[in-house]
Amino acid sequence: MQITHPNILAVIVMALVYMGIGGLWYSKDLFGKMWAECCGHGKDKECKPSTKCYVGCLIVAFIAAYVLGCFINMSQAMTTGEGIKVALLAWLGFSATTQFSSVLWGKKHLKAYFIDAGFTLVMFIIWGAILTNWR
What we know:
Elements: H1 8-25, H2 32-38, H3 51-74, H4 80-104, H5 110-133
């Protein structure tokens, strides 16, 4: 089996899209306040991520988008729907399941899990649609 690498420019753009949508998703206007309360970052604790957090998140997003692009290419997905199917399987098999371990072992609040897993689901769908068409 040969690994066909995705378009690097598309992967870079997908990592930046991840950061932009993540900023919106976790803003106080959407799920940020609820997520912070579930994770113990309530009114008495202010949670301000560092530059290191943002850089690390960008790197992780790049790696995830790159690997998903490889999966899409290896599956020979040709349509947007096929790309989304590959992305959904990757999300379910790798992201949703591994994130749930923090509920089981780390006692993460279920509501916080759904916020985090929902974000990665949305991102995988967007990535699957775009990476299939931007080769």
